[in-house]
Prior knowledge:
By secondary structure, this protein is an alpha/beta fold. It is 37% helix and 25% strand.
Amino acid sequence: LLGGADSVKFHGALYNDSVTDSGLASQLALWLKRMHIKEIIAPADSELAAFCIDEGIKIIAEAFAETEADMILTVETKGIPIALATALYLHLPVVVVRRDSKVTEGTTVSVNYVSGSNRRIQTMSLARRSIGQNRKAIILDDFMKAGGTTKGMINLLQEFQSECVGIGVLM
């Protein structure tokens, strides 16, 4: 807390958008004035985001620590950072499901699924050599609307006679 001004300054678009929409800025400013606090500076979005993501990853890792999983499964591309960070805590490998198979991957297994975001039928694939059979996976992603992508990954695991032992989403 810093003295010298009768205002509340929020740095970054996250604060500006959410605070303006909810009217929180004016309420906070009144409360600060009543408390004789002259100014407060909120952290930049990147600082807050890094803190929140790190804490979220720790929570996800703790939630799945006892699952007996032997890998983390995610879909390209935005789920990869969450999966990698969690994998570091749990000491597990990460396997990435692709939306399109690549020639260099060799033989792949593909499943069709209904996308939750646009309700269209899409395809996801996984190289046959990537996981083998009878594995236990934690599915991690960055967003879930209707669960179509997650259901697709569960179906893909079943093609490998493998199972999902947990699902985590960090938004």
